[in-house]
Amino acid sequence: MSSKLKVGIVGCQGIALGKHLPSLAKLDTVEITAFCDIVKDRATVAAEQYGTDQAQVYTDYRDFLRNSTLDVVHICTPNDSHADIAVAALEAGLHVMCEKPMAKTAVDARRMVEAARRTGRKLTIGYQNRFREDSRYLHTLCREDEFGHIYFGKAHALRRRAVPTWGVFLDEEKQGGGPLIDIGTHALDLTLWMMNNYEPKVVLGTTHHQLSQMKNAANAWGSWDPEKFTVEDSAFGFVIMKNGATIILESSWALNTLDVGEAKCSLSGTKAGADMNNGLRIHGERFGKLYTSEVQLEASGADFFDGKKMSAADLEMKLWIEAILEDKDPVVKPEEALVVTEILEAIYESARTGQAVYFA
Description:
The structure is a single chain. By secondary structure, this protein is α/β, with parallel strands linked by helices. The chain has two domains: 5-129 and 310-329, NAD(P)-binding Rossmann-like Domain (Rossmann fold, 3-Layer(aba) Sandwich), CATH 3.40.50.720; 130-306 and 340-358, Dihydrodipicolinate Reductase, domain 2 (2-Layer Sandwich). Helix content is 33%, strand content 25%. The protein has helices at 14-25, 40-50, 61-65, 82-91, 106-119, 133-143, 172-175, 179-195, 312-325, 334-353, and strands at residues 5-10, 30-36, 56-58, 72-75, 95-99, 123-126, 150-158, 200-208, 234-241, 246-252, 261-269, 272-275, 281-286, 289-294, 357-358. A nine-stranded mixed β-sheet has the order 14-13-12-11-7-10-9-8-15, covered by helices on one side. Strands 3-2-1-4-5-6 form a six-stranded parallel β-sheet, with helices on both faces. Strand 12 and strand 13 form a beta hairpin. It starts with a strand and ends with a strand.
């Protein structure tokens, strides 16, 4: 394999144009040589902006995967297609970054993990919030035992009125769910990563369709069509881990609350606690007194050799490509993302049946 990786992308809208392609284009270790979208014009436009002079355009991912020069594939398609494309790409000998959530179902997510193990190719999932400066700093504190045993966590993903009204976000068949699988997945990933706990025991969950039927609703991206709003507008989960730790997950696109914020977590441990709700705050007890410290995070990017500030998305792509070139584990391991999907699915199942879901 040459030092410059050839990358192809499947799905040339939203997250591809907003994150993957701009960040990949900044790396001198890759070239983007293949673009695939079911609408050819979208792939063509993306290729013209980000591709090499000889970049190829496809409308079928199977034809795209026959491009024998590719090393890496990025999947930015609706949730229901993640697994089929990822497994096919891995079996074609390619490394895969797949957008979150890992898959629509836990069965599909397991297929992806098994394919990565079987082929020896690398697989990662696009949880870019791990690469924020506050997330990285908090994770370091967790690994350095700043908080002791973390036995309670909250995963925050609440919007007051910010329902995505474009694409297939409101389509349960293609997405598998609404805010829980869309933004709740980020908050849960952060919480499990901080706690370094991937062994759920039992999950209880609820989903709601309370505001989705409103007409002419106030919304950040324009009123939604109630007839097309087939996913939940909010969902909540209560998770007990095998070691007794407890996690509460709260998610919404539309909820009458002022307690908003997403891709954040709160942690409570035996030594101290932390939250990301108003900046990054660490709190505990020292010398017989309670304290709360606001962490001042520098925006200088001093961690990087060139001294330039690097966004979470840029750092995500940089470290992913380095993991391939240097044969290291990616920051987001597929086995970790699988547990996120399993818990989300358990919340949906519990909401549907009214019963707790137990893990083996």
